[in-house]
């Protein structure tokens, strides 16, 4: 994997085998770090010319309700315009964080989403997306 962005709270890589941007939460990000990282994901998708994203939410924590709405409306609309089409989400083991991801994704339209328990299954799915 090729690294694109790294901060103390998250990392963005590119997996050439699956032609997907891979976003991994390292610790729960703040309100602003969540938005910054989502913008960096969009930049990475443009840079690598892909609409496929794998997100490891295991260390994400709970998504602030304002960020849920922003992601499902503003961000997703802009991402779709640049070709974002598929998302493989590795679900967190923490039940509250998983509920937060579910609530957020329930508001999203126009993208094909798969849910997984590990990176290997997510990569395998998105390879064929």
Oligomer: single chain
Low-confidence stretches: none
Which CATH-level-2 architecture?
Answer: 2-Layer Sandwich
Count of spatially separate domains: 1
Our measurement of the CA-to-CA distance between the termini, rounded to an integer number of angstroms, reads: 19 Å
Helix content: 40-55%
Which H/E pattern describes the elements?
Answer: EEEHEHEHEH
**Main sheet, how many strands, which sense, barrel?**
6 strands, mixed
The tally of strands reads 6
Helical/strand content category:
alpha/beta
Query: Rounded to an integer, what's the Rg over CA atoms?
Result: 13 Å
The amount of beta strand, in percent, is 15-25%
Shape: globular
Q: Strand order across the biggest sheet?
A: 1-2-3-4-5-6
What's the quick description here?
The chain is an alpha/beta fold and 129 residues long. It contains four helices and six strands.
Task: Give a description of the structure.
It is a single chain. With 129 residues, the chain is an alpha/beta fold. The protein has one domain (2-127): 2-Layer Sandwich (Transcription Regulator spoIIAA). Helices cover 42% and strands 25% of the residues. It has helices at 31-47, 65-81, 95-105, 119-127; strands at 2-6, 10-15, 20-25, 52-56, 86-90, 112-116. Strands 1-2-3-4-5-6 form a six-stranded mixed sheet, with helices on both faces. Helix 1 (31-47) packs parallel to helix 2 and helix 2 (65-81) crosses helix 3. The longest helix has 17 residues, at 31-47. The model has no long low-confidence stretch (mean pLDDT 94).
């Amino acid at each position: 994997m090729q690294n694109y962005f790294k901060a103390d709270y998250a990392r963005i890589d590119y997996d050439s085998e699956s032609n997907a941007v891979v976003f991994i939460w390292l610790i729960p990000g703040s309100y602003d770090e969540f938005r910054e990282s989502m913008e960096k994901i969009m930049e990475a998708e443009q840079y690598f010319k892909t609409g496929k994203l794998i997100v490891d939410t295991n260390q994400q924590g709970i998504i602030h309700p304002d960020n849920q709405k922003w992601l499902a409306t503003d961000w997703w609309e802009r991402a779709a315009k640049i070709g974002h089409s598929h998302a493989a989400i590795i679900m967190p083991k923490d039940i509250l964080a998983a509920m937060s991801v579910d609530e957020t994704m329930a508001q999203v339209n126009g993208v094909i989403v798969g849910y997984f328990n590990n990176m290997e299954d997510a990569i395998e799915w998105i390879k064929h997306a």
